[in-house]
Amino acid sequence: MIRLREERQRRGLSQTKLSSMTGIASADISAIENGWKKTFPGWKKRIAKALGIHEAEADQLFEEVLDGDKEMPEGC
What average pLDDT does range 9-17 have in this prediction? Predict the structure, then answer.
């Protein structure tokens, strides 16, 4: 899972709402959050802006994070 999901949920936004705020399809938001799809630089900017995150910190939204109580494999 990437940090984007945590940030979106923390702000009480659904994928549909974030989709409408960014113009990115909700299916693409889901695919990005699940790591199935890489994001484009323009999408990163639009998502960061919608979440009120400074553009310089936008890359942090797309970093892998632990998913609940799951542990990262050694070496990651």
Answer: 96
Q: Residue 7 in contact with residue 63, Cβ under 8 Å?
A: no
* CA quadruple 66, 18, 37, 71: dihedral, nearest 10: 10
1 band by pLDDT with thresholds 50, 70 and 90: confident
Cα→Cα distances 75→67, 69, 71, 72, Å = 17, 18, 12, 8
29 token code pair: 């938001």
Which two tokens mark 47?
């998502």
pLDDT at 68: 57
Q: How far apart are CA 36 and CA 59, in angstroms?
A: 17
Give the pLDDT mean for 22-27: 97
Task: Tell which residue, 40, 54, 47, has the closest CA to residue 4.
Answer: 47
For residue 63, give the DSSP letter: S
